[in-house]
Amino acid sequence: MKRILQDLSLPELEALVLSLGEKKFRAAQIFQGLMHGKKISELPVPAALRARLLEEYEDEPVRLQEVFTSQDGTKKYLFALADGNLIEGVLMQYKYGATQCISTQVGCRMGCKFCASTLGGLIRNLTAGEILSEILVVNRAEGGTLKERAVHNVVLMGSGEPFDNYDNVVKFLRLLTSEGGIHISARNISLSTCGLVPKMRAFAKEGIPLNLTVSLHASSDEERARTMPVANAYKIADILKACDEYFRATGRRYIFEYSLIGGENCDEAHAHALASLLKGRPCHVNLIRLNEVKERSLKSVSEKEAYRFLGYLEKDGISATLRRSMGSDIGGACGQLRASYLEKTNNAPPMS
Length: 352
Ligand code: SAH
Prior knowledge:
By secondary structure, this protein is of the alpha/beta class. It folds into two domains: 1-60, DNA polymerase, domain 1; 61-345, TIM Barrel (Alpha-Beta Barrel). It is built from eleven helices and twelve strands. The protein has helices at residues 10-19, 25-35, 47-56, 128-141, 166-177, 197-204, 221-227, 236-250, 268-278, 303-315, 336-344, and strands spanning 62-69, 75-81, 86-94, 97-101, 105-107, 122-125, 153-156, 189-193, 211-215, 254-260, 283-289, 320-322. The strands form two sheets. A ten-stranded mixed β-sheet has the order 1-2-3-4-7-8-9-10-11-12, with helices on one face. It has a two-stranded antiparallel ribbon with strand order 5-6. Helix 9 (268-278) crosses helix 10 (303-315). The structure holds S-adenosyl-L-homocysteine. The site of S-adenosyl-L-homocysteine has 17 residues, from strand 8 and strand 10. S-adenosyl-L-homocysteine binds at residues 112, 114-115, 157, 161, 192-194, 215, 257, 259, 288, 290-291, 293, 333-334.
């Protein structure tokens, strides 16, 4: 695979064009073009410069392969990378704007028992420019520009563990939030982690005040370890300390994801245990009814059970909401689309 031009910031592009003997202003033209989702071969620069760039850089690092539209307007995208790997993303329409869910890795190695993304393990990390291109491609396909974006919010909740690909994800966040680019502000970005504590602590020092979200799914380390192997490496107490560090550094309250798994983590005692763990902290709990994955045996809960759990938390003084499930008719859960596509086409994910 060639290199990814979208990995470069404007100052890095300036250094590149100067090294090619071109005028500095070409860098801004290239940057603007790329941020509009253009391929190198479509950039508004002289043909000789495009040809020179194409010798070393991928023309289209992320290509829209298929789009599935749900009855509720949610769109699910299957993207092909330059090396043939597939990733997926989702665009959800909310009253406050369109939110795109993006992937940060091809596959995942965290091994959560309820998740489809991790079924085939980690294939590879995405580069910063590949992650960014997921958004650039969708913004363009939906008729958005840099002034009138079609994507308003971004959540890092697709396939992959963002903090397992830390450097590329941080670089991506700087590109995404930089002025002159697609410029989505940090408060419109949510990053979800399974709780890699050292990386959470490092991230608090990066000065990126986004919505930090942690996948908790249990209120004790023992119960958490039943579905999340990462719980054997990092304790909930240390995750909470790292969240507090993030709050002190950014002033942003943090969010916990809690997927309700039938017979596992959703009776009244679990709700009270979760509430006493989180009581008094500057946090919010997002409840999600487990999205059943056919390769996994875990079961979901009824809407009634989910609201009952929400009621217990609220009575205990915890700020919480039950997340509306969207796009379930088109394979809403992480990794489901890629998994079913690979199965349908009998196409094992390529290794690289
Ligand atoms: N690796 C990151 C982000 C990816 S997943 C993380 O672990 O947070 C985004 C969220 O969806 C996580 O909270 C994850 O635990 C949850 N999730 C994954 N599969 C799910 C499923 N089948 N049903 C409900 N939630 C799921």
